[in-house]
Amino acid sequence: MPMRLATLVEEAASRYSGRTVKWIGDGVELYFRRPADAVRCALELRDRIPEADLPGTHVGINAGPVVYENGDFYGRTVNIAARIAAHAEQGQVLVSEDVVSHGSSDDIRFRRVGPVSFKGVPRDVVIYEAGRA
């Protein structure tokens, strides 16, 4: 029996010290203190969601300052993460250069995709595709 999406997301986020901020339709915004934990969680969800017979993921991860107000996160960092997620193809985990610059990990690899122009973002954003090492 397929696991419900919310249960799958909550379990994975918790395992990597993250938390759910809000659901937007079938999309979810998550918060992690460490960018590598966000990437690990996203890779696990990417692999597990199709096994649960749910539609594939489109993931965008960014790192940087955020504003927390009334139970939600705001700011440029959040907006760019949303743009990156919208740019991702099904099954892709795309991250900003800021995520990559927070340090690599033995279990994660990054492949440069290139600079991308996003509406409402003054400079191109260099993005990478994350995968398991």
Any overview of this molecule?
The structure is a single chain. By secondary structure, the protein is of the alpha+beta class. It has a single domain, classed as Nucleotide cyclase, GGDEF domain (Alpha-Beta Plaits, 2-Layer Sandwich), CATH 3.30.70.1230. Helices cover 34% and strands 32% of the residues. It has four helices and eight strands, in the order H-E-E-H-E-E-E-H-E-H-E-E. The strands form three sheets. The protein has a four-stranded mixed beta sheet with strand order 3-6-8-7. A two-stranded antiparallel sheet has the order 1-2. Strand 1 (18-24) and strand 2 (27-32) form a beta hairpin.
Layout of helices and strands:
Layout: H1 5-15, E1 18-24, E2 27-32, H2 35-51, E3 59-61, E4 67-69, E5 72-74, H3 76-87, E6 93-96, H4 97-101, E7 108-116, E8 125-132
Parallel strand pairs: 3-6
Antiparallel strand pairs: 1-2, 4-5, 6-8, 7-8
Helix pairs in contact: 1-2
Characteristics:
133 residues; alpha+beta; Alpha-Beta Plaits; 4-stranded mixed beta sheet; two-stranded antiparallel ribbon; 4 helices; 34% helix; 32% strand; globular
Short description:
The chain is 34% helix and 32% strand.
Model regions low in confidence, pLDDT < 50 over at least 5 residues: none
Helix fraction by DSSP (H/I, runs of at least 4): 25-40%
The class by helix and strand makeup works out as alpha+beta
CATH architecture descriptor name? 2-Layer Sandwich
Shape: globular
Termini separation = 30 Å
Which radius of gyration do the C-alpha atoms yield? 14 Å
- CATH-wise, what's the superfamily? Nucleotide cyclase, GGDEF domain
User: N-to-C SSE series?
Assistant: HEEHEEEHEHEE
What is the highest CATH level, the class? Alpha Beta
Q: Major sheet: size, sense and barrel closure?
A: 4 strands, mixed
Rounded average pLDDT = 92
Number of domains: 1
Oligomer: single chain
What count of helical segments does DSSP give?
4
**Could you tell me the strand content as a percent range?**
25-35%
> Any idea of the CATH topology?
Alpha-Beta Plaits
